[in-house]
Amino acid sequence: MTKWMNKPISELHDALVRKTVTPLQLVQDCIDGVKADKGNCFEATAFDQALAEAAKIDDVKPEEYLKGIPFLAKDNFSTKGVETTASSDILNGYVPLFDATAISRLKRAGMIMVAKTTMDELAMGGTGTTGHKGNTPNPYDPERIVGGSSCGSAASLAYGIAPLALGSDTGDSVRKPASYSATVGFKATWGRISRFGLFPFATSMDAVGFFTRNVLDAGYVLSALSGHDRMDMSSSSRKKEKYETYVEKKKTLHRIGYFRAVVDAMTDPIIKESYLRLLDRLKERGFEVVCYDYPEKLLDALYPTYMILSCAESTSNNANLDGIRFGPKPEGTIETYSDYMRKARTRGFSDLIKRRFVIGSFSLLSANQAEMFNRAQKARRLIVDEMNRFFDSIDYLVVPASYGKPKKIAELSTAWSLKPDFLDNILTLGNFGGYPSLTLPLGFEDGLPFGVNVTGRIFEDGYVLGLGKEIEELTGLKDIVKEDK
Ligand code: GLN
Questions:
Q1: In 192, 243, 260, 401, which residue has its Cα 20 to 30 A from 186's Cα atom?
Q2: 115-152, pLDDT tens digit by residue?
Q3: Is residue 173 within 6 Å of ligand 1 at its C-beta?
Q4: Confidence band (pLDDT; 50, 70, 90) for 485?
Q5: Could you give phi then psi for residue 347, rounded to 5 degrees?
Q6: Strands 207-212 and 165-169
Q7: What CA–CA distance (Å, rounded) separates 258 from 256?
């Protein structure tokens, strides 16, 4: 176990202010952790840049919460001078000329990027097994998944390699792996954090997210990341806030809702009991806890709707990956541009990606558009309208972030189930409506973590974090690392 990197930002910051440690020591500690990694967490490193940046910092003031602290970034954030592949062969050799806004804002706050983390290829998938470097398993049980697509970010926090890792969340890619790794995972309101330089997957749902060890750290990180960016047309010009104050003062709203259908469908007795107990304890704390009958047929529509829309957007967004300037070169004689592209893409993408592009292309085909793509858009509208009705009178949706133990890698299957489990897809609600959404630890079952998720109205990110703090106090679960690594 590394000496510093298993601690939250809050503690590292205090140590930097008191000068019991230097940024250089922290960065060195993080580098040691990255080098010792046995969990396949990393795609690329930026050790020299990081050491040079750390050497420049000689003083950290109490108000400079993030300054001098190392961080990691999922490999779909563009990073100047550091190879960025999104764990896909098609991007092998791509070295961006600029930093994504999320990266430059953290750097502006004085943070130091040390390495890039593995992911499911191009952020599609939820298992941490589809990237070109192979499996990134669960630190708590290497036979099981840590979830994805932000697998390397989640796992490296659990291993105690860094106190912050950026991720991206289009369906649940930060909030689900956070549940499986006993970390805090947050996705902000769509438009709150600039997506400039984040490789697009499904633009209408993509959000920058991140993993921390506690809710207070998440508040500070959100403050540094949020705010308008003229490089991202969809970034909000709404005034940014000091999100950490919501956490420090436990500023919350009053009414918490849960779905009857969710409680009825839960089968894991330990997770169900912990979840219901949490709702009871929130009631004891003075919150009003109400049951909402969100229609089950809309819950059943989550998965097909998500697949049609995300695959369609992704097919279009990734059409630029032609393998010409980077990626695997096709073999044999090439007659035409499209011949080259077809061969390069055949070599460069894994099966999962190809399958998703087939779904995307099929649903966008003019003959199918009305039946598939347009229908999915209508379904999304109904899903979001119903969520907005929920938010007319209720301030938060609280659901379990996962519903059983993480799956065993050997038991993963690519077969389509006829009736997908809505429990497994419920976090996509946060992306359909662009809501702020937070996962934090709720408990352990046979040594494997599970989390709880809080979702709020758009731009009520602060209040979501405020309730997160309440829950963190109730569970007492914070600053967790897998100790014996
Ligand atoms: N698991 C979802 C998928 O397979 C979510 C991915 C994401 O949020 N990037 O697409």
A1: 260
A2: 999 999 999 999 999 999 999 999 999 999 999 999 99
A3: yes
A4: very low
A5: -80, -35
A6: antiparallel
A7: 7
Asked if residue 136 has its Cβ within 6 Å of ligand 1, the reply is no
pLDDT in tens, 374-413: 999 999 999 999 999 999 999 999 999 999 999 999 999 8
CB contact at 8 A, 106 and 138: no
For residue 99, the CA-to-ligand 1 centroid distance in Å is 23
How far is the centre of ligand 1, averaged over its atoms, from the C-alpha of 172 (Å)?
6
392 CA to centre of ligand 1 in angstroms: 28
- Closest-CA residue, ligand 1 atom 1, reads 126
Task: Report how far residue 406's alpha carbon sits from residue 464's, in angstroms, rounded to the nearest whole number.
Answer: 25
H helix or E strand, kind and range, residue 246 = helix 243-248
Q: Check pocket membership of 171 for ligand 1, CB cut-off 6 A.
A: yes
With a cut of 80, say whether residue 299 has pLDDT above it.
Answer: yes
Residue 129 Cα to ligand 1 midpoint, Å, equals 13
If we measure between CA atoms, which residue out of 459, 452, 1 comes closest to residue 184?
452
Active site residues: 74, 149, 173
Ligand 1 atom nearest residue 126's Cα: 1
Q: Which residue has the tokens 């976090």?
A: 427
